[in-house]
Every structure is written in C-alpha cells, then in structure tokens.
Known about the structure:
alpha/beta; Rossmann fold; Hect, E3 ligase catalytic domain fold; 3 domains; five-stranded mixed sheet; four-stranded parallel sheet; 18 strands; 15% strand
Amino acid sequence: MTADILARYSTDHQNPVTIDVQVAACKAWCKQHGYQVGRVFADEAVSGMKDTRAGYQACIRHLSMGGADLVVIYDQSRMFREFTEWFEFRRLVASFGAGVASVTQPQLGGDLQDPAVFIGEAATAMMNHAQVLVTRQKTIEALRYRARNGKTTGGRPALGYDIGPDKHYIINEGEAETVRLIYRMAADGEGYGHIVDELNRRGLHTKRGRAFTKNSLLEILRNEKYIGVLTYGRAQKGGRGGWNAHTNPRPDAIRLEGGVPPIVERDVWEIVQRRRESRRGCGGRASAKQTYLLTGKVYCGACGAAMVVHSSNDGSLYQYYECGAKHRSHTCTMRNVRVDVLDRSVARAVKQALQDATNRDALIDTVQRAEREAVSLADTVTATATARLQAINEKIERLTDAILDGMYSQALKQKMMNLEEEKRAVETKLREAGRKQQALSAEEIRHIVQQVAAADISTEGGLRQVLSIVTRVTVYPDRFRVTTFSDEFVGDDPAGENPEQFRTGPGSRTGHQKALLHLR
C-alpha cells in the first residue's frame, strides 16, 4: 500500500521548516501504519482558502493516474480552511479510489456516509473556516484604522514617497523631482512616448529601479496620492479572486484628503487628468483588432523581446512588427519589419526547406510524436475533468437543496454562479479532449505535410497553411531565423529582393499541436 504526503504552510512569515516537520511526522505515521511513502507534495506560502495550489493540483493529478492508495496530511487546517473545499477534497480523493488520513486528527478520513464521521469533520472544518474569517476581519479593521490615520497599509510606496518610522508617508525629494517632471511634461502636452524617452535618457528609474515604460508612466499619472489623497479599499475583488485597482472605489473605501503629503499641485493634476481623458477612444481605423499569422511567434534578435504589431500613422495604414522593448521603453534600436513582407519571406523559407524529402520526413516524425502525446494528454485531462465535473454537480445539487429549503443568500447565489461557470469550463475541456480520441496515422500526416509543401502562398489560405508549422521567428538587422517543429532556416533581410536563400539545421519542437490543427 502506497501513501502520498501533502503538506502546506500559509505565509512567508511562517518558518518554512514547518514543511519539514509535517513531512517527517507524515513519514513516521506511514511507517507505523505499514504504508510505503510515494510522492511528497508541498505548497509553501499559499493560503488554505485556495484549491488552486500547485502542490495540491499535482497531488490530484497523480491520484487520477492511480498514483497512491492514501493521502496523508498533518492536520485539516493545513489543507483547507474553506469549509466546502475540505469536503470537495475528500470526495475528489475518494473518486480516484484513495483515502485520506491525518497524523494529528485520527478522527478524520472515515466514511462520509456515516453521519458521525460527517458531523465530526464538518465541525472541525467549520472551526477552521471561522478562525480564518475572524483573523481576516481583525486584519482588515487594523488596516482600515491605519488608513484612517494616514499610515501605510503595506506594500511598496509610490515613487516619490518613503515610509517614516511612524508608518506615515514622507516625501523622498529626489524621487519627487522625477514625479514633478513627469506631471509638468504631461501638462505641457508631451506624448507618453516622448516622456518615457526623456526619463530614460536622463537615467531616471521607477520605484523598482527599472527603466520607465508607458505602463509605469500611466500608474503615476493617475495616482491621487500625488495631490495628497490616500485611498484604502479601492480595489475590487474579481470573480477569480484577483484584485483590480483600476476600477471605481468600493462603497466602503476610505478616502482621506490630506492623508499623504502632496507632491504635485492640484491645478497641474487636473490639467493632466483632462488630457488623459481626451486621449481615450482616439484610436483610428488601423486600431481595429486583426489576426496576424505570426502573432506571438516573432522575437527581436537584438534584445530577445517579443515583437508586436503596430500600424503606421502616415496615412498608408500598413502594419509592421516592432520590438516590444523599443516601443515601451525605447531601450532597443531594432528596426521595424512590415508584416506582409515578413509573412511572405518566412513562407518562402519554409516552402523551400520542405522541397527536401529529409526535411519532410523529420517534420512527419515530429508531428507523429506530438499526436501520440496529445492523445495521452487528452486521456489524462478526461479522467481529471470527469472527476471534477462529478464533484461540481454534487455541490450544485447540495446548494440547490439548500436554496429550496429556504436558505437563500447572496453568498449562496454567488457560489452557485461560480460553480456553474466552472462547470461550463470543465465541460469545454471534456469536449476538447473528446475530439482527440486517436492519433493521425503516418500516411495522414504525410498527406498534410505534402499539402503544406505544395501550398500556394500567393493566396491567404496557402500562406496560413505554411506559416502554421512555424513556432518562432527571430528577426535580426540583416537576416531572420525561422524555427518550425523540426528544423531551423536562416534567411536574408526580409525587406531585401531575394530572401529565399536558406540553410537547415536542428531546431525546436514546441507548439506543434496547436499548429497542426490549422493544417487539417
């Protein structure tokens, strides 16, 4: 009999040695009870209110493949402090034919169909959940008290500020001059790109010590701290648990005028905000969303940054690839490359390489391996998703019963909506995995590759077919390098007259499954 060990400690303030203590105790328990230790899964500095922990997910995947007969934990609070998630964990483990045992709580892990076992585990889970809620409430109240008194509530202060000994914000005069320069230039109508250029030319840096980008610039230009306003509780919590600080403040947010020493004059602030508002919604025809055949595959050979598509502003409306570092922080000098020129040059490179039977055979072998891997992955996804769907349906059924019994509340309604959303996502995964029932034969793959080799790249469909087997294009000042599933091709300047001269060599095998779907 084999047992996996699952351990967790919650915050960076706890001693990481607690993981070792838990694992040692679990191993001793396994030895005492005659279990052979299988794998050890651990989550460090992760909340017990989440079931998205990497170690936990890895443990579940291992169980779904028949990995162990038992999951041994130190105690229930180390696993989940969300009341319902504990029982979700129990049922999910049981669906894979495994059990759960606790080193410090021998009453856990029995048959949940036994009312006494269920009540015992529910009482423990409820106490754990209540403890989290009490701790959270005390923490929030302490933070709100500090905010009402103009003190920091944690995190890195904004550029221009430091935290004093009494936890109040104080002005960092050196950084404050950078902030004032930014606001003066923005109030004078200077473009964001020009401001970023000037800041980096002067060797100025963000609070993190990095070069300025348009994003870091905008964070400064919309921060009310610079006119003395301290806001706590602005961020809205999203459906996936993340925070969005760019929405309107929550109704219970604390907004304290004069809570921070101001750096920028209010009339300058208001001019900048009016200019920011006037910039919104000014995109032209070229700003419309388009799909580009090499999107996400083009990289700068000078600095390694991804190259992204932009449109010209000279009236011609052509699109070009520009180095992301050059666009954001002006720290790269790589020249731009027109989208249509690069597409045609890369397609010609691939077609010429595929005229060689050795290259075609290498591509066929690579795709065939990818097909087998895709089928194996689909089987694993199906098993895991099926178990998760069963657990979700059981949860929905219990919530439905609770609502019908008159226990309706906003919390129950939100929980039901979240479960329905997750159910749709899991069902989508199952449908996608179901489409991959068996791998394509070598003959089928050979036919596809021959179609690609013979495609007419003067047509959009032919160009799409050929470029779909490309996994990466690295652009240099005088050449470019194309990587497909099984080969690399080096080409001349894509803006030149004869970019078709290439040589082959060993290459990358990434991204093949997605690209193959475009070829079928």
